[in-house]
Amino acid sequence: MSPNTAFLNHTFIDAAQASVLITDLSIQRGYGIFDFFKTVNGKPVFLDDHLERFYNSAKKMHLHVNQTPAELKDIITELMRRNNLPDSGIKMTLTGGYSTDAYTLPATPNLIITQLPLTVPQGFQTGGTSLVTYPYQRQLSEMKTLDYSMAIWLQPFIKENNADDVLYQYDGLIKETPRANLFMVTAKGEVITPKNNILSGVIRKNILNLKNSGFRLIERDFSLEELYNASEAFITSTTKNILPVLKVDGKEIGDGQAGEITRQIFNLLLEKIK
Amino acid sequence: MSPNTAFLNHTFIDAAQASVLITDLSIQRGYGIFDFFKTVNGKPVFLDDHLERFYNSAKKMHLHVNQTPAELKDIITELMRRNNLPDSGIKMTLTGGYSTDAYTLPATPNLIITQLPLTVPQGFQTGGTSLVTYPYQRQLSEMKTLDYSMAIWLQPFIKENNADDVLYQYDGLIKETPRANLFMVTAKGEVITPKNNILSGVIRKNILNLKNSGFRLIERDFSLEELYNASEAFITSTTKNILPVLKVDGKEIGDGQAGEITRQIFNLLLEKIK
Questions:
Q1: Residue B13 contacts A where some CB pair is shorter than 8 Å
Q2: pLDDT score of A1
């Protein structure tokens, strides 16, 4: 296996050697942002959406990106050329960086770009997934920060509940999973995704923007009870595209099978990714 | 200036060169824990309390410390010998560490111990401090995690409000500042500190354990309104010991001067640190 290349600040380096000093605000304070997109057949998917969110997250977290979006694109192109991984995930991380006292802004962020093999299944995943809910509202939820403390802390809880992942709800309203947005389909055929205090996912955005889907695509908050009574549900993310949700808290959603409307939306989305 | 020494996993190294690989869960996910204690005249202060909390935080966050407390003490002693900094702050960080996919536990944590000069004022700081409140409940609040996202994000907010630091309140109940516990003194002379969903600070604990203080030391939650009407208030932390709070949200606490009961508690505490 040829060595994997990463990009760190100004330089392409061997990813296995890439490190940052322990004074970085990510290590000291868990502070920083990132974004993550996939390449399929050597082509980045929804790259402009991911770059837009990356710069937005940085700005809202008071961090400065030294490169312009065009410069970042050039770096990504060169990284892809060096690694030659047609199907991959590319992660752009902007750490909080070096601060005079490991606390106070402004700091000098470290830009880290990594690329790893990633094959997102192209077929509809009827096997689906099973979620368990937990009461939690992500902090600074509109920014894609490095903070996954709760998600990682909950890993034993997820196992104990025989689930594949956790679904956050707060004050009885459904939010999101740690790394995916949720949609439900009602008996009336409405396709609804939570609106407030969530991370606006790129797949979510591209589903909401589907033209001629034939479905009523709606952003509004809804309760755990409504989700239990949905006829279908699915989650969306860069690594999953769309994955049917068959169970929540051990209860079957609809008939407990991957839904027909979910499948149709999956097909429409796939047209945009090919 | 002689080079500063840090300890990383198994080795004493030049602190300026100490780094961790970018795959560490602290950089990838903001995951990890730490503790921080001071040395005064070459003597660690409340070290057993800090070690106890360090191991508790690690255990509750599903992280394993390879060293026993006795081994950590030996490492700390050797670090102090090498750095020769009688008045210092020593930070022990246990990062989330290396995980197969930068997400899933178990991971292999990195242990980082650093020592920097720190002189905590030995006199009573009548100049005090001014706080501005913000609605926030720290997540995983009983563990001393690396997560200071909100604290750092709020730095511009603190400046805009001409305050020195932020005081978290949630659902109208006072919690803590990002790096200190809060106490208030009522007109009846009760000394009260919030009880639930806070980090249990070592100075806070040692104040609550003061014998013969002559004061009623009480743990109970109280409202922002009660704090506004307190006759005195102060914050406690390793780096501050006790610092009078003169203003909250621009309103003077009591007569806006450092309080007499605060001073007496400060003197009692100092006896335990000398």
A1: no
A2: 58
* A147 close contact with B: CB closer than 8 A: yes
Which CATH number does A5-117 carry? 3.30.470.10
Fold of A129-273: D-amino Acid Aminotransferase; Chain A, domain 2 (3.20.10)
Q: In chain B, what are the domain boundaries?
A: 5-117, 129-273
Q: How far apart are CA B258 and CA A268, in angstroms?
A: 66
Residues in chain A with pLDDT values less than 50: none
Cα(A8)–Cα(A31) distance, rounded to whole angstroms?
17
Asked if residues B194 and B252 have their Cβ atoms less than 8 Å apart, the reply is: no
B32-40 and B43-44 beta bridge pairing: antiparallel
- How far, in Å, CA of A143 to CA of A175, rounded? 15
Q: Is A158 on the interface with B (CB under 8 A)?
A: no
Q: How far is CA A178 from the centre of its chain?
A: 8
pLDDT at A214 (0 to 100): 87
CB atoms within 10 A of CB B21: 15
DSSP state of B106: P
Residue B148 · residue A103 · CB < 8 Å: yes
Of the pLDDT bands very low, low, confident and very high (cuts 50, 70, 90), residue B1 is: low
SS3 B21: strand
How many A-B residue pairs are in contact by the CB < 8 A criterion? 134
Contacts of A156 in chain B (CB under 8 A): 62, 105
